[in-house]
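Throughout our pipeline, every protein is held as a single compact record rather than as scattered files. Such a record has a labelled line for the sequence and another for the backbone structure tokens. The remainder of this section carries one protein's record, kept here as part of the documentation:
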Amino acid sequence: MSGADTDPLDRWHFHPIANPRAHEEVVEQITFAILSGAFGSGERLPNVEALARTMGVSKPVIGEALKVLTKAGVVKAQRGIHGGLSVDNVDVPDSVLTITAPLSHFEVREIVEARRPVELQVALLAGERATETDFAAMQVCIDRLREHRNSDLSNRIRFDHLFHYTIGRTARSRALALYQHQILENLYVRMGPYFAEIEEVESVIRLHEMTLDAIRTRDPAAIAEAIDVHLKPLETVVAEAGEGAGLDNQT
């Protein structure tokens, strides 16, 4: 079939380039490193030269990214012999997350569908590769979420996501961990009303405990069942509401 009688744009899903500027990709990488727990509040980041060399961009591009992050209060830059870059605040504001959301051209339904295979594979790999130290780190995330269950939404979401990111690190798959990050942050930005008004923090804590217990068994069937239960609440809400039903901040 040549497709001569169809509109060429109907033959492939070309999507808008939402992130054409290199400094936004730098912002995303630094943000991901902070949200995933690699750098805590007050801890030093690599210097500008090291970041430019590692990411393969110029120092001015790194500088543009740092302007965004310092203005948002996420990163602090100090001059002098004891200066450098450090994390000023691990609570990355929504304004920065919106900049770094590369999946914004997809519908929420599509992102939710993509989340399932990514989270499942991450959890299965974690079941194969986790050490006792990894299990302890996951438990710390649950404990911190429990401690902050009455905190503001952004703080609760940070510890919620940190549990998932810890599983992602445990999987030892940088590609899957990045996809997981992009999906989670995009859903948070797009579905703020769901996390603020529908999702119950006590239920999230129970789901995290159940997921950790399943990963500890290292049994693929038990892990798959736990992930199914874990993802079902949000999937059900999206399926029942559909696009434009007050769950998507962009509608």
